[in-house]
Every structure is written in structure tokens, then in C-alpha cells.
Amino acid sequence: MSSSPASPLKRLWFRWKSLKLPWRRRWLAGSDLLGNTFWEFKDSLNANRFRRIVNYNPRAHYSDIHITPQWHQWLRHTRATPPSLTEQRLDLTRQQQLKQLARLADERWAAKPSFLDDPRKMAQAGPATLPRDSGGYEGGRAGEG
């Protein structure tokens, strides 16, 4: 979803910030495809638990910010490890395939006639009183014989 991959300098900065060095107050856990960065730091009240936050992409408008379910799980300590970029890309392709399959299913559903449709717009069959089988009669006359 991001327009371009991270530059080598930015990747180096991400790698440096992700090191859990003793003097660091917080460290980088990862980033998503939209450019949001996710951070982890020690909680001052509970030393056994780490706090997790997200820093939104500064170039994105607040209404355009979207956090994926995988990152929501990580932020809420439901998931132990942060999602990788390949996992995020695979989830994005899965969502695109799901949208395409839903569109095809909607097209198939729309092509089928419905009982709720207006009967005047539906193709009318001939009257049901006409015999389909002539019963041996041709031209309204009984066969000789």
C-alpha cells in the first residue's frame, strides 16, 4: 500500500532503533505498509509488562489512518510477536482476492431472477391452457385409422 519501499538509510535507521539497548527508553517493534511505526517501552507502573504504542505516518491525514487487525492484536498484547511485512503483504493479497470473489458472487446473485422482481418486467410464458403434447392430433383432426 505504500508508494515506494523504504530507502536503505531508513531501513538502517529502523534496524538501529529496533535494538533493545539498556539505555533506550523505547524501541521499534516494526512498521506497517502505510508507514506507521509501532513502538514498545517499559511500563513505569508495572515493570513486568511492556507498553505498546503506534506513531502514525506524519504524511497521512488522520482520516486516512488504518491499523490492520494484526497490529491491533499486537498493541493489545493478544499477539506476542509483531507481524512481519511479508505477513502484511499476504493479508493484503488475501483481502483483494476476497473482494474479487465477493464481486463475482454478487454478479451471479444479480443475474438470477428473484420472486421480489416486478412480474410485468419478467419474461412472460405462454398461457398454461395450451396443450404441450398434441396427443396424436395433428391440425385439430383425429388421425385416421
Automatic annotation (TrEMBL):
- Region Disordered: start and end of each range? 112-145
Whether NADP counts among this entry's keywords is no
Keywords from UniProt, A to Z, are:
Ubiquinone
Compositionally skewed regions (Basic and acidic residues) per UniProt = 112-121
Give the GO cellular component terms, alphabetically. Answer: mitochondrion; respiratory chain complex I
| Residue ranges, compositional bias (Gly residues) | 136-145
| GO annotation (BP), single | mitochondrial respiratory chain complex I assembly
Question: Which family is this sequence assigned to?
Answer: Belongs to the complex I NDUFA12 subunit family.
What protein name is recorded for this chain? NADH:ubiquinone subunit
